[in-house]
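The records we work with from here on pair a chain with its fold. A complete example follows; check for yourself that the lines match position by position.
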Amino acid sequence: MAAKKSPFFDTATTLGKIVAFFGVSALCGVLAAGLMIPVASFAGTGAKAAGEIFDALPANFKEEAISEPSKVLAADGTTLATFYAENRQPVKLDQISPIMRKAIVSIEDERFYEHNGVDMRGILRAAVNNFTSSSQQGASTLTQQYVNNLLINSASINGVDKSEITFSGTKDLADKAREAKLAISIEKKMSKDEILEGYLNLVLFSGRNYGIQAAAQRFFSVDAKDLNIQQSAMLAGMVQLPTAYNPELYPERTLKRRNTVLAQMLRTGAITQAEYDKAVKTDLGIKPTNVKSGCIAAGDNAYFCDYVTRLITTNDTFGKTKKDRENLLYRGGLTIKTTLNADLNKKAARDARKSIDPLAKSNTDVFSSLVSVEPGTGNILTMAQNTTYDPEKKLGNTVLNFAVEKSLGGAGGFQGGSTMKPYTTLAWLHEGHNMYDTINAKKETFTSSDRWKASCLPGGATRIGGTWTPKNASPGFYRPMTVDTGLYWSINTATIQEAKRVDLCNITDYINKLGVKDQEAGEGLTPADFKPTAPAFVIGSSKITPLSQAAAFAAFANKGEYCEPRALTSVTDRAGNNYKVKKETCSQQVDSQIVADLNGTLKKIATNRVSKGRVAGPIAGKTGTNDYSTSTWFVGYSTGISTASWVGRVNSQAAEKKNTLQSSMINNKRAPYAVDSSTYAAPLWVNFMEEAVLQYERKSFGSAKSAPKPKAEPKSEDSSSKSDSKSDSKSKSDSKSKSDSKSKSKSDSKPAKKEPAKPKKSDD
């Protein structure tokens, strides 16, 4: 229930009118004395006292910059999103139509060009009217209104609660006297046209739309310079009561108010009788354009937009506190230029939705994501997924960004599966081996007695607790084979034997140098470097983000030079000041010949097993699937673009049978038993990259070393000269004759279960 007004101050009552009349008269006395106006009734001690009161009032205040929206731009300069607490687009006076200027002066302050900031005649007129009439008149000049809006803006900028801000309808005599003195002070510093320009850029028109340019765009979809008579009259009429005279909410009331303004414009000579007669017969003619604030309006670019805003609000370059940074973003008029290829990102989003339908009832926890990085720069080119960026809990909606870590609004990564195997191969090559060395992939059980070299750990080694029995997806690969064959067919036991024969710290060193973080190893939301304490990480048991894999594999595309992923190219405020953003940060992390040797195998995977002629080469990449297929991947690249494609579960990620995608309902139909990277993730990558690679350079990855001539090797557990040569030839024939559908293996992400693994169609 609304509080009952006191009869002393309720101007609807006779007593209230009397009090108001004498209150305004008192204000007139203070102003007259302060201005040294020779009014007889203020002579003597009364005038002196009033003058002292006026002199004691402040004549200046800290004027804050007016709130302006910030814009996030794509690489080509198109606007991705606008952020504002107040939607405002400041313009110069000559960018505002002359008739709009006349309209606001006619209805709000017809003596604007005659007074010095306070209109004594207007105050007295309003006092008499309000005492004798049921209708109320204001007496604030445009200059006083400008001051009032400046005070409100300053309070908002400094975080004053709205309940503590003095608005027009809640001001007492002291507030009005202070406002008057400030108005007089401003009139001494600014010209009338400067005040009018400032007022028209500052004043509220409706909702969060401030200033004449934003209002013209909002209600008529035109610039302020193009406003006509009737449009100007409507907007001028709105400033008195922005909600009550909103044409979308109250069209009849707004039309009546507009016509009142037209009549006043005719009376003051702002328009002719003929212009009035024509304008008053028109309807409102609004053509609304609603500029939404924030990433929710960015459509397919929303997840990249969210990532960008979090980069700003978590970086103390943009303010000491998060509140300061958010204030800068929503009020500081920033121009934020980014690396995003907006057109390509739209295609990525379309392809992601085509792969996994976000509105299919079966897909409540099946999602897809694509993220691309440019080799040689680290520029993030795309960041898209199959969902709609919306906090409303509804099928197909989420604000989680599947490509990034939790601290930046992400889902926190997914088990990498066999996309992690190339890092072991890098260590293998780093230690002097080659892709055609033979390893015995027969061993599938490891116990605490097995010692794993790890020079960076105390004691120089690590051991597992209990028994670890990693499985291959296909039973025919528990045998000797070359490293090339093991990586090509993604054989778990082959990669594990590689890891057993190298220093695990060399593997984690490559992972860490290439920017991939263990998303579950850090404290809180912050991921940490990989540590070689448990060897299961070599076949992808740890959670990693798609963005980090796309950036790491971009180094494979760039002869071993790793570039940190970046989204911002520049951030500039309205005054032209530049904020420090990450520059292109690239460094050689892998020997170029080692990368060329690795690419020799990864090229065959992408070309023969995945693309099959659809994506123009040279291309390379690696498949990846975790146990029970809750996380499936393909990360591939040309020399111009590196893209991670991921499909899997988000809410039920654990590699357990109850969460499996195998034979589950996906896109409202039964998925194959052997869901792996070739089922959804790799086809998604192919569909996207088929066009994407054509937009960027496609050069050679360099020449891989050829297979060395066979030579006798001493017999050991892992190799013998006889079995090696046989298995080598068989491996080569395998890679040529075995079909993709029968020869992949799945990487296990946890110790093997007691039940034997069933043969599976694919292995990633």
Observations:
- The chain has three domains: 8-56, 87-280, 414-570+586-742.
- The mean pLDDT is 86.
- The chain has 22 helices and 22 strands.
